[in-house]
Amino acid sequence: MPEIARMLRDFSIMQQTEPQRIVRSPGKRRRSGTTAVELVVAVTLLAVLTGICGELIVSTVRLRREERKRAWALQEAANVMETLFAKPWDELSVGKKEVRPCSPAGQSVLESAVVRQEVFAAGKGRRLVVTVEWPNGEGKLPGSVSLVAYRFPTVGAPPASQSSRPSGPTRQLVQDTNVQRVANDRGE
User: Fold this and answer.
1) Which of 180, 178, 179, 127 is nearest to 152 (CA)?
2) Which phi and psi angles does 27 have, rounded to 5°?
3) What is the C-alpha to C-alpha distance for residues 166 and 174, in angstroms, rounded to an integer?
4) How far apart are CA 12 and CA 10, in angstroms?
5) What does the DSSP assignment read for 70-136?
6) What pLDDT, in 10s, does the model give residues 11-39?
7) Where is there biased composition of kind Polar residues (predicted)?
8) pLDDT of 101-153, one tens digit each?
């Protein structure tokens, strides 16, 4: 009960005092809304952010285009390298250089691209280098991708005077060796 009495007394004191009035001078009225300065700052910030986002989008598109060209060039180089590995050993003469255009599909992405293939001596083997070069736009360095591989004569390959493709037991030996390698890679 004493708490209720105290609350009533505090309430009666609060009713006796008058609330203070805030008096404003007539010349300084506060207006709601935005000022011209606030609008100029907001528009400037919006323009700067739009410019930054636009530049970011343009550079991203440019990078994606270059990566697409690089991926196509790498695929072209891999295709040429595969054909070099498919050639008989006798056809891989040291110092042989060949320049040719890309495939028609590659030319659709890599305009005016060329494929260079070179064969170098590397001990008992051959060092095969395939480079794909393409123009990269006005005033820019050309883009290029290179693949390097080493090829050695196959075990049991016939001498250069005989057939360049293994046949009979030699071919079977090469196939068995490849199967054995695959089995060892799998842990069998």
Assistant:
1) 127
2) -80, -20
3) 9
4) 5
5) HHHHHHHHHHHHHHHHHS-GGG--TT-EEEEEPPHHHHHHSTT-EEEEEEEEETTEEEEEEEEEE--
6) 666 555 555 666 666 666 666 777 889 99
7) 160-181
8) 888 888 888 888 889 999 998 888 889 999 999 887 765 767 889 999 998 88
